[in-house]
Amino acid sequence: MSIQLIITLCILVFLVVMLLTNKLPYGVSAMICCVLFVLFGILDLQTAFSGLSSSTTLMIAPMIVVASALGNPAGSGHLRHYHYPFPADGSDRMYFRYASVSADSG
Fold first, then answer.
1. pLDDT on residue 42
2. Is there a contact between 16 and 24 (Cβ–Cβ < 8 Å)?
3. Which long-range contacts (CB under 8 A, 24 or more apart) does 29-34 make?
């Protein structure tokens, strides 16, 4: 095994541990790994950060923001107040799950 392979595996293990333990935000963990790849000479700067400008990344990032806003209990309170009188016992979450499942099933 070459030294670059060992360094790459160590960086990826670091990333997996950081993502599973949530010690750092996801973006910070990913940026640290990209910088480490560049510092150790495994990737050049352009290759390490080229995924940030891809159309897939630019499409998925706003979807994550919307999904986290819908999953936020405080956000469901705003929906309850303005759109539909959901019960106060939290059953609005079940309504959102049912609506998303029924929309997916056609």
1. 93
2. no
3. none
- Look at residue 94 and tell me whether its pLDDT is greater than 60: no
CA 74 to CA 81: how far, in whole Å?
11
Question: What is the distance between the alpha carbons of residues 82 and 85, in angstroms, rounded to a whole number?
Answer: 8
Burial label for 85, CB within 10 Å (0-12, 13-18, 19+), is exposed
The single-letter DSSP state of residue 22 is T
Residues for the chain: how many in total? 106
Query: In sequence order, which residues have a C-beta less than 8 Å from that of residue 48 and are 6 or more positions away?
Result: 34, 35, 37, 38
Burial class of residue 34 (count of CB atoms within 10 Å of its CB; 0-12, 13-18, 19+): buried
Which residue's entry shows tokens 């790459």?
Answer: 8
